[in-house]
């Protein structure tokens, strides 16, 4: 459902932090589960939209990070959304395999309650 | 489901950025919709856990921001989760009223596709 006439999107109209980055939340299209949060710069936003393959910006390596490039656990972009302040992205994705480098389907596998923390999602079986 | 014996949680074990903040994603417990992203410091994490009412840190005002304090659109914490890097929080919440200050149920009401952006969620009717 579109509520207004679409306007052209320019990644440079997003609000980036002082390192030129914007947080991007990945959510599973099929289950609604929040999978991970990582960062993008304007170029990785453009690359993600152009390729349909989610491409973050690796802060530690200072380079494009096409999700799944080494693990095979790609994220195909279904829809990109931007929030009211234009300083956060929501990526609706089709996730291949587990999203987390620990082999769990989501990075948010630790729950906090009653002053304690506990793992609530197990790693996927290998294969 | 708990996969290991719970260990005591200390907010100071989270990884905060150079401003002492950690991003917190709010997701609706009832619908699974991602509602918003805001920031917390260690004190607001502790306050949120103690009170059960989601309390962010307002970067613009430099003070606690108990969500809904002025709007009445509170977020009751159902569960807090932390990601694998301990540098992002996921808050499963029961949202009262719309989460967005624009009176929409989610801040992520703008979708980007085919090089254009368009609003896909309308403001809630008043009342």
* Largest protein-protein interface: A-B, 46 and 46 residues
Which class best fits the helix and strand makeup of chain A? mainly beta
Ranges of chain A where pLDDT stays below 50 over 5 or more residues in a row are: none
Number of strands of chain A: 9
The averaged pLDDT of chain A comes out at 94
Distance between the termini of chain A: 39 Å
The shape of chain A is globular
Number of helices of chain A: 1
Identify the quaternary structure here.
homodimer
Rg of chain A (C-alpha, Å):
16 Å
For the largest beta sheet of chain A, what order do the strands appear in spatially?
3-2-7-6
Main pleated-sheet profile of chain A? 4 strands, mixed
Explain this structure to me?
The structure is a homodimer of 127-residue chains. With 127 residues, chain A is mostly beta strands. Chain A has one helix and nine strands, in the order βββαββββββ. In chain A, 8% of the residues lie in helices and 37% in strands. The longest helix of chain A has 10 residues, at 42-51. The termini of chain A are far apart. The mean pLDDT of chain A is 94. Chains A and B meet through β1, β2, β3, β6 and β8 of A and β1, β2, β3, β6 and β8 of B.
Task: Present the secondary structure layout.
Two copies of one chain form a homodimer.
Chain A: E1 7-8, E2 22-28, E3 34-40, H1 42-51, E4 55-58, E5 63-66, E6 75-82, E7 89-95, E8 110-113, E9 116-119
Parallel strand pairs in A: 2-7
Antiparallel strand pairs in A: 2-3, 4-5, 6-7, 8-9
Question: Which key phrases capture this entry?
Answer:
1 helix, 127 residues, homodimer, four-stranded mixed beta sheet, 37% strand, mainly beta, two-stranded antiparallel ribbon
